[in-house]
Design brief:
- A hairpin with a 5-residue loop joins strand 1 and strand 2.
- This protein has five helices and 16 strands.
- The C terminus is likely disordered.
- The relative contact order is 0.09.
- It is flat and about 80 Å long.
- Helix 1 runs antiparallel to helix 3.
- By secondary structure, it is α+β, with helices and mostly antiparallel strands.
- The chain folds into two domains: 130 residues, no CATH class; 153 residues, YVTN repeat-like/Quinoprotein amine dehydrogenase (Methylamine Dehydrogenase, Chain H, 7 Propeller).
- The longest helix has 57 residues.
């Protein structure tokens, strides 16, 4: 079918209209994302200064006590942190950490005792292009935490994720929580020569979060994982339940058998405890280390 003059004019006009709308939308997204980042930077700086001042007042109220113990248990400081999250829609959490980067207070209590999260470079987002900035602001953060290579050169990796689905190329999609308030554990094996996924699995419970902190692989290809958790994750037929805000865990999985666990154990008390490392020996034994936080009073 051939278009007449009027038809061609209408088609050109429609195309130009779509081009103008697309351009205007792109400019609007660029401006909105920039304003969101600038506002987040200002509000974060303001809240940080207020938390610093409140921390100073907490230390003044107990001049002879251990500063770390005071900051970790001061009720007024706790209340201020909790209320600060509702101050702005751009403020997702607030925390107080010690000089080693260990979280003393966190608005998400299950994260207390853990290493403080990587601080986002908000100012750096103002320098990147619009697409990169928009992607950084709205993409879910699912990434590997640790990896190890076996004697054959194959790669084992583990991390956590909060998206509804985690896709590892070459393996079936893993179902996730679909909310940032929960974290599922994932583990995967990759071909060392091609990077193709060989196998993968996810672990979770009825609630809580799982944070792998270290992994190791033994001579038979069994994968050992250590970390900390809250809630009650299940590894095969074994369910472990945290006693406090978070506890340590260690498990040994078999990637060749759908990641069936040889065992899974919980460690810790009623305070926040962190599993920091795990290693396997030539005899296929596993050794785990971590940090146990004592309660006060």
């Amino acid at each position: 079918m051939r278009l007449g003059v009027r038809g061609r004019e209408a088609l050109v006009l429609s195309f130009l209209t779509m081009l103008v709308v697309a351009t205007a939308t792109a400019i609007h997204i660029s401006q909105v994302s920039r304003v969101v980042v600038q506002e987040a930077v200002k509000q974060a700086e303001l809240i940080a200064k207020q938390i610093y001042a409140q921390s100073g007042r907490a230390l003044q109220r107990a001049p002879n006590a251990d500063p770390l113990d005071v900051l970790g248990h001061d009720p007024e400081l706790r209340s201020f942190l909790d209320s600060s999250v509702g101050y702005s829609p751009h403020l997702l959490y607030a925390l107080v950490s010690d000089s080693n980067g260990t979280v003393l207070l966190h608005t998400e209590r299950q994260k207390e005792g853990q290493p403080e999260p990587e601080r986002p470079n908000l100012e750096g987002l103002l320098k990147v292009d619009t697409l990169s900035r928009f992607s950084a602001l709205y993409n879910a953060g699912d990434k590997p935490s640790f990896y190890v290579v076996d004697d054959a050169g194959d790669v084992y990796a583990s991390g956590n994720f909060d998206s509804a689905t985690l896709t590892i190329p070459g393996t079936p999609a893993l179902t996730g929580p679909g909310t940032t308030s929960r974290k599922f554990l994932w583990a995967a094996k990759f071909n060392g020569a091609t990077g193709a996924g060989i196998s993968s699995a996810a672990f979770s419970g009825a609630g809580g979060q799982i944070f792998p902190r270290n992994i190791s692989v033994d001579a038979t290809g069994k994968l050992a994982i250590a970390g900390n958790f809250s809630g009650n994750p299940t590894f095969g037929g074994t369910t472990i339940t945290s006693a406090g805000g978070q506890d340590m865990f260690a498990t040994k999985l078999d990637p060749a058998s759908a990641y069936a666990p040889a065992w899974a154990v919980r460690m810790g008390g009623t305070a926040a405890d962190v599993g920091a490392g795990i290693a396997t020996t030539s005899k296929r034994c596993a050794a785990c280390c971590g940090r146990r936080c004592a309660t006060s009073g």
